[in-house]
Amino acid sequence: KKILIKFKEFLGNVNIIYGIYKKFGKEYPYCRVAFRNKKIVEFLRELGITNNKSFSIKVNFPITNHFLRGLIDGDGSIYCGKRNCVRIFSASKDFVKQISDLLQENNIENHVYLRNNKKVLYDIQVNKNSEVKKIIDFLYNNANTFLQRKYYNATQIRNNLMKHLKFRELA
Predict the structure, then answer these.
(1) Residue 169 pLDDT greater than 60, yes or no
(2) What angle do CA 116, 118, 121 make, to 5 degrees?
(3) pTM of the model
(4) Rounded distance between C-alpha atoms, residue 90 and residue 100, angstroms
(5) φ/ψ (deg, to 5) at 89
């Protein structure tokens, strides 16, 4: 919510819509942005961002760590379970390739999996400990806007990885 308020202050003519969606019997609050300014809508369209972007997105600008962090804040996850992992989901094969290429260009090993339940969905994963540390460093380098809970998870994982990786070097 705080990020969307910052976004609204920056752009001006934007609506923030609040709601609740139900999944598996639980209710989850959500926020989304609606643009009313035709110039902004056209600008986003030129960048490759459309209403039904889930299946067709292919951005027409260089993807940066800041864009990727926003993407993970919205459609990805950073978690620690049996394995540390950073994941991004998309239904657009072209967009997944763009993200995977960005990670590879920054020497971050990643894997793309096709999930085909009821809909085609691509799952980009970074799950090797040394690579998870790299992507966390990449995501939060010079960052000042981020989802607080994901940043907290990322720093906890990174700190644990630093201990783990240093221990392995000593062994």
Answers:
(1) no
(2) 45
(3) 0.76
(4) 12
(5) -115, 145
